[in-house]
């Protein structure tokens, strides 16, 4: 196998306009320079450090979506097996390449989504972005330009909106080119692995060099796409600074498939070369994406952070003036008052209502036989009235009253006698039955009052728990609010990996995105636009990897992961029929519980 170029021969040297974006690039460059200082490339110590570094990077960029290889293909964990050492190392480098490309695609897609959302906004929203969401330096520059143009021209606002549109479109154009190139690279690599999987298992000695040569050719095609991007850069671009030097990958020697097999040393050198090309690609993209990425959160919200910092400074000065450091006891008094107010609120609206419910739940049933008016007291009053009526009737009529006579019948006799006595009230009050009739009516009134009180007491005792619950309503509402906040935090409803309604919506939208790209891929194939179809297929793999990553945890919770995983793998097979893929997407959103909307589950 021919010797390969030195490690530092084709390293690009980007412009130092963005220090943060150049950190990954120069870290790799310094590492290669340190490696070249050693007299031999077979240093055991250096090899261990290199492997440890690559393993660390691999963990950070762990791929979720499985490679399109047979199930019996040795994975990178089988590196200790003598019979599968070469294939296991190939599997490891393939995972790193896929993970790196998918990670860069994700960064590009996030920036693209941001710029597209801003470009679709109103003119006022674009002007606000140009002035207030690009940092303090841009705020001063754009404010000065806007004021000067307002004084000299009438179309200052229109000029600002046009500048904003150019700013966004320039970045979107470059990001779209980068995404298209990476998606094509990903699609070609995925298709090659799908086609060569069986050969890699059956005849690895012949297939592995050929596969490495194909991957090296894919890197060359990617290099051509990026050089095309450099050639198309417009002179009036709004992107600050200059682009890095065009990317140049190291090349493998041509493979003679019918000749002698590669030695272990040659195979190791080829794998190391792919690693180095991947590092060059990541370094190059870190610079290119960094120049066109969306502004960082600190830059977007610098006005809020500045106002918050000023407000915090003023508050700190005010707090210092009222602290004990300045000889004031205001803070201690405020803390004491706040503590008492909090304890009072907790006692009045939480503790006491809960204790009241507890006491009522136990005391109501324990003292249910006691009340304001008891049945025995009412019965005594009723018996006394019955005897009074019976004696009055017997003395008035001088006849024995039957035992089955009711109180109402005897009361009629009393009322008739009472009416006659009222003809001569004064005489009958002293010598007649008028006073006795009045006392009987008072006894009847007492009985009626006691009966009404007994019924009212029964009503109150039946609703004692309801009154206690009504007194505890503030504590109940407070508990509901706390439980809602706790539920939202536990379910992580704002993420696609969560278990709440918003997370389910995000996952279902990913399925919709996959379905659209499947249909778009089929449309491009029918129109003969193979290049566009290749790009869409790469984006399809990217969408599948995103769904694969976010649905794994909820699918495992519902014991559906094995079936969901198999369906996602079927959607990524290049030779699978489009009609079958659309059937699978419908099954994903209608059958699996982890992807169903909340209302359907209920």
Automatic annotation (TrEMBL):
Signal sequence segment: none
UniProt KW Electron transport keyword: no
UniProt name for this protein: Protein DGS1, mitochondrial
InterPro entries: NCA2-like
Coiled coil, from the record: none
Membrane as UniProt keyword: yes
Bilayer topology term: Multi-pass membrane protein
Subcellular location: Mitochondrion membrane
Major site of localization recorded for this protein: mitochondrion
Bilayer-crossing regions: 301-320, 465-486
Pfam families in the record: NCA2
Keywords: Membrane, Mitochondrion, Transmembrane, Transmembrane helix
Organism: Camelina sativa
Domain of life: Eukaryota
């Amino acid at each position: 196998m021919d010797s390969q170029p030195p490690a530092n021969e084709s390293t690009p040297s980007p412009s130092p306009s963005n220090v943060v974006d150049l950190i990954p690039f120069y870290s790799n460059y310094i590492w290669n320079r340190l490696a070249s200082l050693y007299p031999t490339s077979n240093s055991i110590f250096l090899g261990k450090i290199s492997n440890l570094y690559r393993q660390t990077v691999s963990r950070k960029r762990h791929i979720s979506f499985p490679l399109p290889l047979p199930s019996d293909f040795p994975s990178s964990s089988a590196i200790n097996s003598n019979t599968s050492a070469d294939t296991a190392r190939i599997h490891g480098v393939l995972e790193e390449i896929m993970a790196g490309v998918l990670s860069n695609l994700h960064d590009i897609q996030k920036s693209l989504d941001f710029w597209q959302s801003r470009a679709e906004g109103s003119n006022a929203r674009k002007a606000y972005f140009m002035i207030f969401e690009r940092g303090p330096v841009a705020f001063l520059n754009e404010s000065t330009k806007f004021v000067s143009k307002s004084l000299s021209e009438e179309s200052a606002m229109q000029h600002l909106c046009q500048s904003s549109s150019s700013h966004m479109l320039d970045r979107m154009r470059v990001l779209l080119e980068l995404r298209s190139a990476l998606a094509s690279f990903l699609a070609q690599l995925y298709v090659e692995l799908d086609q060569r999987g069986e050969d890699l298992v059956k005849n690895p000695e012949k297939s592995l060099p050929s596969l490495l040569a194909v991957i090296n050719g894919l890197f060359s095609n990617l290099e051509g796409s990026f050089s095309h991007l450099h050639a198309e850069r417009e002179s009036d671009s709004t992107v600050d600074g200059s682009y890095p030097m065009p990317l140049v990958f190291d090349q493998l020697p041509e493979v003679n498939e019918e000749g002698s097999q590669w030695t272990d040393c040659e195979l190791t050198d080829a794998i190391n070369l792919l690693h180095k090309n991947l590092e060059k690609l990541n370094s190059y993209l870190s610079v290119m994406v960094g120049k066109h990425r969306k502004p960082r959160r600190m830059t977007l919200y610098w006005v809020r952070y500045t106002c918050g910092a000023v407000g915090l400074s003023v508050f700190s000065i005010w707090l210092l003036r009222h602290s004990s450091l300045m000889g004031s006891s205001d803070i201690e008094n405020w803390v004491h008052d706040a503590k008492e107010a909090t304890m009072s609120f907790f006692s009045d609206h939480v503790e006491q209502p809960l204790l009241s419910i507890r006491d009522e739940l136990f005391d109501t049933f324990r003292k249910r036989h006691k009340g304001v008016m008891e049945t025995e007291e009412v019965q005594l009053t009723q018996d006394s009235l019955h005897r009074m009526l019976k004696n009055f009737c017997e003395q008035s009529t001088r006849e024995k009253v039957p035992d089955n006579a009711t109180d109402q019948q005897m009361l009629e006799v009393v009322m008739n006698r009472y009416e006659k006595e009222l003809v001569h009230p004064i005489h009958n009050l002293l010598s007649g039955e008028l006073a006795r009739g009045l006392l009987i009516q008072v006894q009847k009134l007492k009985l009626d009052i006691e009966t009404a009180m007994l019924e009212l007491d029964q009503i109150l005792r039946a609703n004692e728990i309801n009154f206690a619950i009504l007194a505890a309503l503030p504590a109940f509402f407070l508990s509901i609010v706390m439980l809602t906040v706790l539920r939202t935090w536990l379910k992580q409803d704002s993420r696609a990996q969560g278990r709440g309604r918003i997370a389910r919506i995000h996952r279902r939208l990913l399925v919709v995105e996959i379905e659209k790209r499947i249909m778009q891929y089929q449309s491009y194939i029918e129109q003969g636009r193979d290049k566009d179809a290749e790009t869409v297929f790469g984006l399809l793999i990217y969408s599948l990897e995103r769904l694969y990553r976010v649905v794994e945890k909820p699918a495992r919770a519902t014991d559906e992961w094995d079936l969901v995983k198999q369906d996602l793998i079927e959607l990524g097979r290049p030779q699978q029929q489009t009609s079958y893929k659309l059937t699978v997407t419908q099954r994903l959103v209608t059958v699996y519980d982890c992807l169903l909307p909340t209302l359907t589950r209920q």
